[in-house]
Description:
21 strands, globular
Amino acid sequence: MKRNLALLTDFYELTMSNAYFKDNKHLDIAVFDVFFRSIPDDGGYAIFAGLESVIEYIKNLKFDEDAINFLRNKKDFDEGFLNYLANFEFSSDVYAIKEGTPIFPNEPIMVVKGPLIECQLIETFVLLSINHQSLIATKASRIVREAKGRPVFEFGARRAHSYDAANLGARSAYIGGVSDTSNTLAEYMFGIPSSGTMAHSYVQSFDTEYEAFKQYALNYPDQCLLLVDTYDTLNEGIPNAIKVHHEVLKPMGKSLKGVRIDSGDLAYLSKKVRQMLDDSGLTETKITVSNSLDEFLIRDLIVHQEAAIDSFGVGERLITARSEAVFGGVFKLSAIKSGDKLVPKIKISDNVAKTTIPGFKQVYRFFDENKKAIADVITLHDEVIDPSKPYKLFDPLHPWKYKIVENYSIEKLLIPIFEKGKLVYELPTLDEIRKHKEDSFETLWKEVIRLKNPHKYYVDLSQDLWDLRQKLVTEHKK
């Protein structure tokens, strides 16, 4: 859908930008960081998503005549500022981590460097895109992991908070590892496989359940998956499904592909259904379950209850990330240019977690000799790390806790996306993003990705950056 999203911004972004323009500060060069402070669900990792939406937004950011007239009628804005908006051209540099990469608190996942006014104008859209899509990608990854290789279908379109949330949520869930979506538009837009069979209303629309199953089998003999819990799963649904297999599908040389259970005790029912299907010779017929599932329920079904389930349909608790519905990413000023120098800026808080990390920065991921990620190190942008030399990793809050690493390799995580307003990043396909997520995930220790009480992944500062931060804190406390 073609929409002009230029006004999709918090109003104070515009009032600040107007003031910058009137004070002739709008061309001052600034650096802003995007980062988040805590991982949803007390997890050990998050998955970065939303970069492609940000790129498309920036590429198409224009204030058309209707937008300008709307702002003029607010009577809050200088005419010169409105003229600036009418001729707006993005000219900043943007660096970001690749979509699908595991990310951790307090490290920059995107950096914007350019005229102060440009950075301010894009803040809201950058945050809403990254916060939402990273949240859903992270939730999907947790759910898929607990399914232990069983396919997970994203069923959440009708529970999403808007049509944009349904579409972009399906995309994010696919990055996170789901195999299919119920959202047909998501396949049209992004190429995500869409699938689905029937609802209870289909079964109810016939005089009998058997007749409903029979007609569905005749219509879809190669893809016949039947919803068996409309009336009585064990006494009606499964017997009718088995009967349709033998009386309708088998004479056609076809077989019942699967059954779906959407209510009741899923562990108990799945085991009983498996036995009934096997006793009827339908050992290849798959059992899919749905009904307000999440990673915790899926883990319990598989690990603790030994449910006979082949795949999961997950809806509302995935598409809304119901257990923790806010990702918490922020957009903070970290430097501003004065003369020929970038002057680092810091926000100080009595809450240590809210004291920002100053300066124009880069992030390096350290890997051991087995290619397992051991820490991320935030550095000043131009710092160089030599992997041939030992490196000291230390806790930024407790610097006496440190480790000297050798025989390591490094990866620079923040890569150029825009340079002086020009897109220099080749957008990967969605399948390439998903593959990058899977490959990156393999570098994480199991202790980091476990569901309960995960090991805290280390995000450290370089010595130079730590010294800079301490210096600024001391200066501001005088």
